[in-house]
């Protein structure tokens, strides 16, 4: 079911609470249709949205006008990614009663008709990939793919509930899919900003009609580090995605008997699995069984039960927008190759790590490639591998393994890194090894 139909079915009933007011299904539907009616011919929309109501209006616009809408984080500068837009349209932002936070923008195109208008021949959404493993891309997802993804999310975690507090950003696919899933199942949604304080989160979930909290690892860490587990004590489901939960967060949540669920997915694939941390003895990295319609293939090495994950799903994105061009097709032999490493067991999937080119250190993106380049510039370093390790405060920090030439000390390399790298880039640990396993193409085999 499309978002437009969900809102139409809701009618005048309140469905979304944000910034101190309720939005009914009819109001959100009207806001999106108003925007669609003001488009001057074929175009593509860029929506710099921070509010859930604005995200919904943009989605309805895309559905009604059969265009593509790209969602951007308004706090980030996307000019370096080649995303340029004409500013200030429409200036009244859906009318005086419509969502007012989004910068509704038209895609700048040299050609008269943009291939982004409807690259699939149907309305679509574009979300930016996280950039955690590479430069962020604009991932094109049809409305159909979302209509497949959201109901199975709802079946897994929203069935039988009345309300959800949504702290995940709705301009990201994770938050968007759960917003649609909750609305489609008839839940009322209380939307709070992803940067919400502990007091704001506590006030939002302190309602008898709220049984679910959908957020980020940051939110769980915020609550648990403050010893305020009682904030979540009355909930039936505590959902987290957009990053692997730390072992300390999981341990504290389970010690407080919190119903913790870890969600696995990506912008390209949609949601793939949802794991109940209470259901297995070792919940660190556990994401559960694949959801209906999802297949996960693990390619093991000869001496390990871990390996890269490949995905086949009916909720897969259709393509990528890169440098203004639409590039269809994301699969190789019918499978989407992820950058994730995992292992399978009778209870489902555990995530072990990522084939990451970038780390998230205290919220900042750190390039493994840059650190490796600096290491290799140090006299006496023959080879190097850089990766991330768990850190209770910063989420993850860089570490490395190095092949040193005779006479080169680890202490010398520590000094080199301190002088050549930014503080958040300095490896926490440096491990000397005899060799670093590589494939025939020279790529590091991180799962070995």
UniProtKB/TrEMBL annotation:
- Which PANTHER family does the annotation name? 2-SUCCINYLBENZOATE--COA LIGASE, CHLOROPLASTIC_PEROXISOMAL, ACYL-COA SYNTHETASE
In alphabetical order, the GO MF annotations are: medium-chain fatty acid-CoA ligase activity
Q: What is this protein called?
A: AMP-dependent synthetase/ligase domain-containing protein
**Pfam families for this protein:** AMP-binding, AMP-binding_C
Q: SUPFAM superfamilies, alphabetically?
A: Acetyl-CoA synthetase-like (SSF56801)
> Which residue intervals define the domain AMP-dependent synthetase/ligase in the entry?
93-319
Q: Can you give the residue ranges of the AMP-binding enzyme C-terminal domain? A: 373-443
Q: Which organism is it from?
A: Micromonospora wenchangensis
**Per the UniProt entry, what is one GO biological process?**
fatty acid metabolic process
Q: What highest taxon heads this organism's lineage? A: Bacteria
């Amino acid at each position: 079911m499309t978002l437009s139909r969900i809102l139409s079915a809701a009618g005048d009933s309140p469905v979304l609470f944000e910034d101190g007011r309720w939005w009914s299904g009819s109001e959100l539907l009207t806001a999106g249709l108003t925007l669609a009616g003001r488009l001057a011919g074929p175009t593509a929309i860029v929506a710099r949205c921070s509010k859930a109501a604005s995200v919904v209006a943009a989605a309805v616009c895309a559905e009604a006008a059969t265009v593509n809408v790209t969602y951007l984080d308004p706090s980030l500068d996307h000019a370096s990614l080649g995303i340029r837009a004409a500013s200030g349209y429409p200036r009244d932002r859906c009318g005086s009663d419509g969502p007012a936070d989004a910068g509704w923008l038209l895609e700048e195109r040299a050609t008269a008709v943009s291939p982004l208008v409807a690259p699939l021949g149907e309305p679509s959404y574009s979300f930016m990939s996280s950039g955690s493993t590479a430069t962020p891309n604009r991932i094109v997802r049809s409305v159909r793919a979302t209509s497949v993804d959201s109901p199975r999310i709802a079946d897994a975690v929203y069935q039988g509930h009345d309300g959800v507090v949504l702290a995940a950003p709705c301009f990201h696919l994770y938050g968007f899919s759960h917003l649609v899933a909750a609305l489609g199942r008839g839940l009322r949604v209380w939307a709070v900003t992803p940067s919400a304080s502990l007091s704001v989160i506590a006030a939002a979930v302190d309602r008898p009609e709220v049984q679910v909290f959908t957020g980020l690892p940051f939110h769980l860490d915020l609550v648990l580090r403050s010893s305020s587990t009682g904030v979540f004590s009355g909930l039936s489901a505590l959902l987290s995605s957009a990053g692997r939960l730390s072992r300390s967060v999981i341990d504290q949540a389970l010690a407080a008997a919190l119903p913790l669920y870890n969600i696995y997915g990506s912008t390209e694939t949609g949601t793939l699995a949802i794991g109940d941390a209470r259901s297995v003895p070792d919940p660190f990295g556990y994401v559960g069984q694949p959801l209906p319609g999802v297949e996960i293939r693990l390619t093991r090495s000869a001496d390990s039960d871990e390996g890269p994950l490949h995905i086949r799903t009916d909720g897969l994105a259709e393509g990528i927008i890169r440098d203004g061009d639409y590039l269809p097709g994301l699969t190789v032999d019918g499978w989407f190759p992820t950058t994730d490493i995992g292992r399978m067991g009778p209870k489902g999937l555990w995530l072990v790590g990522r084939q990451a080119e970038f780390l998230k250190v205290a919220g900042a993106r750190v390039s493994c490639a840059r650190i490796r380049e600096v290491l290799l510039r140090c006299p006496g370093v023959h080879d190097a591998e850089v990766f991330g390790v768990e850190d209770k405060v910063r989420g993850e920090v860089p570490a490395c393994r190095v092949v040193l030439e005779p006479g080169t000390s680890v202490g010398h390399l520590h000094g080199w890194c301190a002088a050549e790298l930014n503080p958040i880039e300095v490896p926490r640990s440096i491990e000397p090894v005899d060799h670093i396993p590589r494939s025939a193409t020279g790529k590091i085999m991180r799962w070995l």
